[in-house]
Sequence to fold (357 residues):
Amino acid sequence: MVTIEFLAAEGRVVGSAGCNNYAADVVFDGASLTVEPPVATRRTCPDVEGINEQEQVYLAALEAAQSYTLADIVLTIQYDGDNVLVFTSGPRSPEPIPPVTDDTAASAPAELANITWQLVELNGTTPLTDTQITLIFADGMQLGGSDGCNSYSGGYTIDGNTITVSQLITTLIGCMEPEGIMDQAQTYLNTLQAAQSYTLADGTLTIQSADAVLVFLAGPPPTDTGSTPTDGDTVSSVPSELVDTTWELERMGGESLIAGTEITLEFVEAGELGGSGGCNSYFGSYAGTDSDLSISGVGSTEMACMEPQGVMEQEQQYYQALSSAQSYSIEEDQYNIYGKRLEITYDGGVLVFQATS
Fold:
């Protein structure tokens, strides 16, 4: 099902493109309509042949919107000349829930609210290693937390042991690792939004939908006492010439980039990195000792770029290469105005960057 919903107060449009959720900024001027490039999650839905291709066509059409008409329950959006998208009105998303008052506060048990609930079981299985899914019931009958990759929020109501969760809104970061994290996040959000009842006993919160169960424990997420590097491990031996420089990718695995694309990388002293993957902004963490380099937690925003052809595949190849970094070297480059070239060796090749600042 392809849906669209206008959030007038926020100047945004959100909905489902059939497989993925999307969002975009929107501007109205009379009957004219301008939609900024939509951002969307990156699920693949192999069970429905052609659905992901249909999504791309729909999002491109929405971005090309020019005007709209509304008659009874039919919304028509005109794009690219005489082409149209036609929608019919369906059930509205729940209205924002008013703040808690003395009359409504009793419906939100004190033992449920303002606690960080840590997911320990998702439909009978434990969450993926190194992922933390949380749920917090806050004041104002609002809830939020982390799905393991993105932050989310929404409203809720409680009547006895019955719980109803309104449409959830999430940030649009794409996490690359561990494998399966995005599918896990989507399963969690779908189950939470379909919640029907809950039970609370001995610090364990169980939320049930028609066909799924979420089990949480009260308290903060457990502290990871594993091999996470300390600040000294991550930055003490990384040369200052690596940080505070914008590095632009020149070659990946011996191949030049697609014409019209630009991939950048920046390291900061706190052990964090980021840049542009050619379409999306990305982020991650790094640790280095001498010439060794490891990069983890690479995630990105979730825009879908249609051109130039191959830009999305190139971006994914870059993220995978970056995530498998093994070592680095910085060389003098007489042909570069800033005099430096960075080479990162990864599992399968070398990333070659030129300093641009």
